[in-house]
Amino acid sequence: MGKLEGKIDFSKIAEEYEELATVQKSASEVLLKLLKIRNSEDVLDLGCGTGHLTRKIRSLTNGKVVGVDPSEGMVRKAVEKSKGLNIIYEVKSAEDIDYEESFDVIFCNSALQWFKDPEKAIKNCYRALRRHGRIGIQAPAKKVYCPNFIEAIELVKREKRTKDTFAHFKEPWFFLETAEEYKSLFEKCGFKVVFSEIKTIVTEHTHEEVFNILLIWSDSWISKPRLLRYKADKRLYISIQRNSEKSL
Ligand SMILES: C[S@@+](CC[C@H](N)C(=O)[O-])C[C@H]1O[C@@H](n2cnc3c(N)ncnc32)[C@H](O)[C@@H]1O
Protein backbone atom coordinates (compact mmCIF):
# COMPACT_ATOMS: atom_id res chain seq x y z
CA MET A 1 0.00 0.00 0.00
CA GLY A 2 1.38 3.39 -0.93
CA LYS A 3 1.57 6.40 1.36
CA LEU A 4 -1.30 8.84 1.67
CA GLU A 5 -0.36 12.11 0.10
CA GLY A 6 -1.96 15.10 1.81
CA LYS A 7 -2.56 17.12 -1.34
CA ILE A 8 -5.31 16.26 -3.79
CA ASP A 9 -4.24 16.51 -7.38
CA PHE A 10 -6.04 15.01 -10.34
CA SER A 11 -3.03 15.52 -12.65
CA LYS A 12 -1.82 11.96 -12.02
CA ILE A 13 -4.94 10.49 -13.57
CA ALA A 14 -5.38 12.99 -16.43
CA GLU A 15 -4.30 10.43 -19.06
CA GLU A 16 -6.89 7.78 -18.25
CA TYR A 17 -9.58 9.94 -16.66
CA GLU A 18 -12.03 10.17 -19.56
CA GLU A 19 -12.04 6.47 -20.24
CA LEU A 20 -12.69 5.66 -16.58
CA ALA A 21 -15.22 8.42 -15.82
CA THR A 22 -18.30 6.29 -16.51
CA VAL A 23 -20.21 7.38 -13.38
CA GLN A 24 -19.47 11.06 -14.00
CA LYS A 25 -20.55 10.80 -17.65
CA SER A 26 -23.93 9.21 -16.99
CA ALA A 27 -24.67 11.62 -14.13
CA SER A 28 -23.77 14.61 -16.32
CA GLU A 29 -26.55 13.75 -18.74
CA VAL A 30 -29.16 14.44 -16.06
CA LEU A 31 -27.48 17.74 -15.28
CA LEU A 32 -27.39 18.81 -18.92
CA LYS A 33 -31.11 18.08 -19.19
CA LEU A 34 -31.80 20.12 -16.07
CA LEU A 35 -29.80 23.11 -17.30
CA LYS A 36 -31.14 23.22 -20.88
CA ILE A 37 -28.28 25.29 -22.30
CA ARG A 38 -29.50 27.55 -25.12
CA ASN A 39 -27.47 28.19 -28.22
CA SER A 40 -26.24 31.73 -27.55
CA GLU A 41 -25.47 31.33 -23.85
CA ASP A 42 -22.05 31.90 -22.29
CA VAL A 43 -21.14 28.91 -20.13
CA LEU A 44 -18.55 28.22 -17.45
CA ASP A 45 -17.67 24.57 -16.80
CA LEU A 46 -16.42 24.61 -13.21
CA GLY A 47 -14.07 21.75 -12.30
CA CYS A 48 -13.95 20.84 -15.99
CA GLY A 49 -11.27 18.13 -15.66
CA THR A 50 -10.06 16.99 -19.07
CA GLY A 51 -12.88 18.91 -20.78
CA HIS A 52 -14.96 16.01 -22.14
CA LEU A 53 -18.14 17.76 -20.95
CA THR A 54 -16.83 21.22 -21.86
CA ARG A 55 -16.57 19.98 -25.44
CA LYS A 56 -20.13 18.69 -25.23
CA ILE A 57 -21.24 22.13 -23.98
CA ARG A 58 -19.35 23.68 -26.92
CA SER A 59 -21.64 21.72 -29.25
CA LEU A 60 -24.73 23.19 -27.53
CA THR A 61 -23.94 26.91 -27.71
CA ASN A 62 -22.27 29.44 -29.97
CA GLY A 63 -21.57 31.63 -26.94
CA LYS A 64 -18.36 31.80 -24.93
CA VAL A 65 -17.31 28.51 -23.31
CA VAL A 66 -14.76 28.53 -20.48
CA GLY A 67 -13.43 25.55 -18.51
CA VAL A 68 -11.76 26.05 -15.13
CA ASP A 69 -9.94 23.47 -13.02
CA PRO A 70 -7.11 23.69 -10.43
CA SER A 71 -5.33 20.61 -11.78
CA GLU A 72 -2.65 21.58 -14.31
CA GLY A 73 -2.51 18.05 -15.69
CA MET A 74 -6.27 17.89 -16.30
CA VAL A 75 -6.30 21.33 -17.97
CA ARG A 76 -3.29 20.44 -20.14
CA LYS A 77 -5.20 17.40 -21.39
CA ALA A 78 -8.34 19.51 -21.93
CA VAL A 79 -6.42 22.05 -24.04
CA GLU A 80 -4.82 19.24 -26.06
CA LYS A 81 -8.22 17.64 -26.79
CA SER A 82 -10.03 20.89 -27.60
CA LYS A 83 -7.79 22.23 -30.38
CA GLY A 84 -9.73 24.41 -32.81
CA LEU A 85 -12.91 24.35 -30.71
CA ASN A 86 -12.71 27.90 -29.34
CA ILE A 87 -12.81 26.92 -25.66
CA ILE A 88 -10.86 28.93 -23.09
CA TYR A 89 -9.31 26.96 -20.22
CA GLU A 90 -7.89 28.32 -16.98
CA VAL A 91 -5.99 26.61 -14.17
CA LYS A 92 -7.91 27.92 -11.16
CA SER A 93 -9.96 26.60 -8.29
CA ALA A 94 -13.60 27.57 -7.73
CA GLU A 95 -12.42 29.45 -4.64
CA ASP A 96 -10.18 31.66 -6.81
CA ILE A 97 -12.35 32.56 -9.78
CA ASP A 98 -13.02 36.29 -10.04
CA TYR A 99 -15.41 36.67 -12.97
CA GLU A 100 -17.99 39.45 -12.72
CA GLU A 101 -21.38 38.92 -14.35
CA SER A 102 -19.71 37.06 -17.23
CA PHE A 103 -21.83 33.91 -17.73
CA ASP A 104 -25.44 32.87 -18.30
CA VAL A 105 -24.81 29.33 -17.05
CA ILE A 106 -22.38 27.60 -14.71
CA PHE A 107 -22.18 23.84 -15.16
CA CYS A 108 -20.47 21.90 -12.38
CA ASN A 109 -20.34 18.12 -12.64
CA SER A 110 -18.78 15.83 -10.00
CA ALA A 111 -16.55 18.55 -8.55
CA LEU A 112 -18.39 20.20 -5.63
CA GLN A 113 -17.33 17.42 -3.24
CA TRP A 114 -13.69 18.45 -3.74
CA PHE A 115 -14.15 22.15 -2.96
CA LYS A 116 -12.10 23.22 0.06
CA ASP A 117 -14.26 26.26 0.83
CA PRO A 118 -17.66 25.65 -0.80
CA GLU A 119 -19.23 28.84 0.55
CA LYS A 120 -16.49 31.03 -0.92
CA ALA A 121 -16.72 29.12 -4.21
CA ILE A 122 -20.52 29.50 -4.38
CA LYS A 123 -20.28 33.25 -3.68
CA ASN A 124 -17.75 33.48 -6.53
CA CYS A 125 -20.23 31.67 -8.77
CA TYR A 126 -22.97 34.10 -7.83
CA ARG A 127 -20.71 36.99 -8.83
CA ALA A 128 -19.68 35.26 -12.06
CA LEU A 129 -23.28 34.87 -13.23
CA ARG A 130 -25.32 37.53 -14.96
CA ARG A 131 -28.70 38.48 -13.51
CA HIS A 132 -31.11 35.56 -14.00
CA GLY A 133 -28.13 33.36 -14.78
CA ARG A 134 -28.23 29.79 -13.46
CA ILE A 135 -25.91 27.19 -12.00
CA GLY A 136 -26.44 23.44 -12.15
CA ILE A 137 -24.52 21.10 -9.90
CA GLN A 138 -24.25 17.34 -9.86
CA ALA A 139 -22.09 15.67 -7.25
CA PRO A 140 -21.90 12.65 -4.97
CA ALA A 141 -23.83 13.54 -1.81
CA LYS A 142 -23.93 12.37 1.83
CA LYS A 143 -21.05 11.15 3.94
CA VAL A 144 -21.86 7.53 3.09
CA TYR A 145 -22.25 8.34 -0.60
CA CYS A 146 -20.98 4.94 -1.63
CA PRO A 147 -21.40 2.47 1.28
CA ASN A 148 -18.94 -0.12 -0.02
CA PHE A 149 -16.25 2.46 -0.57
CA ILE A 150 -16.70 3.99 2.90
CA GLU A 151 -16.68 0.50 4.43
CA ALA A 152 -13.44 -0.27 2.59
CA ILE A 153 -11.85 2.85 4.06
CA GLU A 154 -13.00 1.88 7.58
CA LEU A 155 -11.52 -1.59 7.08
CA VAL A 156 -8.11 -0.38 5.97
CA LYS A 157 -8.05 2.04 8.90
CA ARG A 158 -8.37 -0.96 11.27
CA GLU A 159 -6.40 -3.58 9.34
CA LYS A 160 -2.94 -4.34 10.78
CA ARG A 161 -1.11 -4.03 7.46
CA THR A 162 -2.65 -0.70 6.48
CA LYS A 163 -3.57 1.12 9.66
CA ASP A 164 -0.26 3.02 9.93
CA THR A 165 -0.66 4.38 6.41
CA PHE A 166 -4.21 5.45 7.21
CA ALA A 167 -3.49 6.72 10.73
CA HIS A 168 -3.72 10.36 9.69
CA PHE A 169 -6.32 9.92 6.99
CA LYS A 170 -8.88 12.72 6.92
CA GLU A 171 -11.77 12.49 4.51
CA PRO A 172 -11.05 15.01 1.77
CA TRP A 173 -14.65 15.51 0.64
CA PHE A 174 -17.31 18.09 1.34
CA PHE A 175 -20.74 16.53 1.94
CA LEU A 176 -24.05 17.62 3.40
CA GLU A 177 -26.70 15.10 4.41
CA THR A 178 -29.92 16.44 2.88
CA ALA A 179 -31.10 18.23 -0.25
CA GLU A 180 -32.53 20.88 2.09
CA GLU A 181 -29.08 21.58 3.58
CA TYR A 182 -27.59 22.02 0.10
CA LYS A 183 -30.48 24.31 -0.76
CA SER A 184 -29.83 26.43 2.34
CA LEU A 185 -26.14 26.73 1.53
CA PHE A 186 -26.90 28.14 -1.92
CA GLU A 187 -29.63 30.43 -0.57
CA LYS A 188 -27.18 31.79 1.99
CA CYS A 189 -24.95 32.78 -0.94
CA GLY A 190 -27.77 34.70 -2.67
CA PHE A 191 -29.25 32.05 -4.99
CA LYS A 192 -32.87 31.07 -5.47
CA VAL A 193 -32.94 27.26 -5.60
CA VAL A 194 -35.43 25.87 -8.11
CA PHE A 195 -34.58 22.18 -7.81
CA SER A 196 -32.63 20.16 -5.26
CA GLU A 197 -32.69 16.41 -5.04
CA ILE A 198 -30.53 13.58 -3.70
CA LYS A 199 -31.01 10.40 -5.69
CA THR A 200 -29.71 6.95 -4.86
CA ILE A 201 -28.30 5.33 -7.96
CA VAL A 202 -27.39 1.65 -7.86
CA THR A 203 -25.20 0.22 -10.57
CA GLU A 204 -23.61 -3.22 -10.91
CA HIS A 205 -20.12 -3.62 -12.33
CA THR A 206 -17.45 -6.24 -12.89
CA HIS A 207 -14.48 -6.23 -10.53
CA GLU A 208 -12.35 -4.59 -13.18
CA GLU A 209 -14.86 -1.81 -13.74
CA VAL A 210 -15.20 -1.31 -9.98
CA PHE A 211 -11.46 -1.06 -9.66
CA ASN A 212 -11.35 1.54 -12.44
CA ILE A 213 -14.16 3.63 -10.96
CA LEU A 214 -12.53 3.65 -7.54
CA LEU A 215 -9.14 4.29 -9.06
CA ILE A 216 -10.17 7.74 -10.21
CA TRP A 217 -11.83 8.48 -6.86
CA SER A 218 -8.83 7.50 -4.87
CA ASP A 219 -5.77 7.91 -7.03
CA SER A 220 -5.61 11.62 -6.34
CA TRP A 221 -4.65 10.87 -2.74
CA ILE A 222 -3.44 7.24 -2.53
CA SER A 223 -0.65 6.00 -4.75
CA LYS A 224 -1.76 2.33 -4.98
CA PRO A 225 -5.36 1.67 -4.03
CA ARG A 226 -6.59 -1.85 -3.26
CA LEU A 227 -10.34 -1.72 -3.25
CA LEU A 228 -13.41 -3.90 -3.14
CA ARG A 229 -16.88 -3.66 -4.71
CA TYR A 230 -18.96 -0.74 -5.81
CA LYS A 231 -22.73 -0.77 -5.69
CA ALA A 232 -24.59 2.33 -4.62
CA ASP A 233 -23.91 5.96 -5.14
CA LYS A 234 -25.88 8.86 -3.73
CA ARG A 235 -25.95 11.80 -6.12
CA LEU A 236 -27.02 15.37 -5.64
CA TYR A 237 -28.71 17.24 -8.46
CA ILE A 238 -29.25 20.90 -7.89
CA SER A 239 -30.27 23.65 -10.25
CA ILE A 240 -30.11 27.19 -9.02
CA GLN A 241 -30.96 30.61 -10.33
CA ARG A 242 -29.14 33.79 -9.52
CA ASN A 243 -31.51 35.93 -7.52
CA SER A 244 -31.68 39.32 -9.22
CA GLU A 245 -32.73 41.27 -6.11
CA LYS A 246 -29.78 40.43 -3.92
CA SER A 247 -26.18 41.35 -4.51
CA LEU A 248 -23.22 40.20 -2.45
C1 LIG B 1 -14.22 13.86 -10.72
S1 LIG B 1 -13.47 15.18 -11.60
C2 LIG B 1 -14.83 15.82 -12.58
C3 LIG B 1 -14.36 16.39 -13.91
C4 LIG B 1 -15.49 16.71 -14.87
N1 LIG B 1 -16.30 17.80 -14.38
C5 LIG B 1 -16.36 15.48 -15.11
O1 LIG B 1 -17.54 15.48 -14.73
O2 LIG B 1 -15.85 14.50 -15.65
C6 LIG B 1 -13.34 16.40 -10.34
C7 LIG B 1 -12.60 17.64 -10.83
O3 LIG B 1 -12.75 18.66 -9.83
C8 LIG B 1 -11.55 19.39 -9.81
N2 LIG B 1 -11.46 20.15 -8.56
C9 LIG B 1 -10.93 19.76 -7.39
N3 LIG B 1 -10.98 20.76 -6.50
C10 LIG B 1 -11.58 21.81 -7.14
C11 LIG B 1 -11.87 23.16 -6.76
N4 LIG B 1 -11.59 23.61 -5.54
N5 LIG B 1 -12.42 23.98 -7.68
C12 LIG B 1 -12.73 23.52 -8.93
N6 LIG B 1 -12.46 22.26 -9.33
C13 LIG B 1 -11.89 21.42 -8.46
C14 LIG B 1 -10.47 18.33 -9.96
O4 LIG B 1 -9.22 18.86 -10.33
C15 LIG B 1 -11.10 17.43 -11.00
O5 LIG B 1 -10.70 17.73 -12.29
Task: From the structure above, extract its key features.
single chain, 248 residues, alpha/beta, Rossmann fold, 7-stranded mixed sheet, globular, disordered N terminus, disordered C terminus, binds S-adenosylmethionine
Can you offer a commentary on this structure?
The chain has 248 residues and is an alpha/beta fold. It has a domain at 23-142 and 172-205 and 231-242: Rossmann fold, CATH 3.40.50. 32% of the residues lie in helices and 22% in strands. It is built from 8 helices and 7 strands, in the order H-H-E-H-E-H-E-E-H-E-H-H-E-H-E. The protein has a 7-stranded mixed sheet, sandwiched between helices. Helix 4 (72-81) links the parallel strand 2 (65-69) and strand 3 (88-91). The protein is globular. The relative contact order is 0.18. It binds S-adenosylmethionine. S-adenosylmethionine (SAM) binds at residues 10, 21, 24, 28, 46-49, 53, 69-71, 74, 93-95, 109-111, 114-116. The site of S-adenosylmethionine has 22 residues, from helix 2.
Summarize the structure.
The chain is an alpha/beta fold. It has helices spanning 17-20, 22-35, 52-58, 72-81, 118-128, 147-158, 179-188, 207-218; strands at residues 43-46, 65-69, 88-91, 103-109, 129-140, 191-202, 232-242. Mean pLDDT is 84; it is low at 1-5, 220-231 and 244-248.
Topology at a glance:
Layout: H1 17-20, H2 22-35, E1 43-46, H3 52-58, E2 65-69, H4 72-81, E3 88-91, E4 103-109, H5 118-128, E5 129-140, H6 147-158, H7 179-188, E6 191-202, H8 207-218, E7 232-242
Parallel strand pairs: 1-2, 1-4, 2-3, 4-5
Antiparallel strand pairs: 5-7, 6-7
Bound molecules: S-adenosylmethionine (SAM).
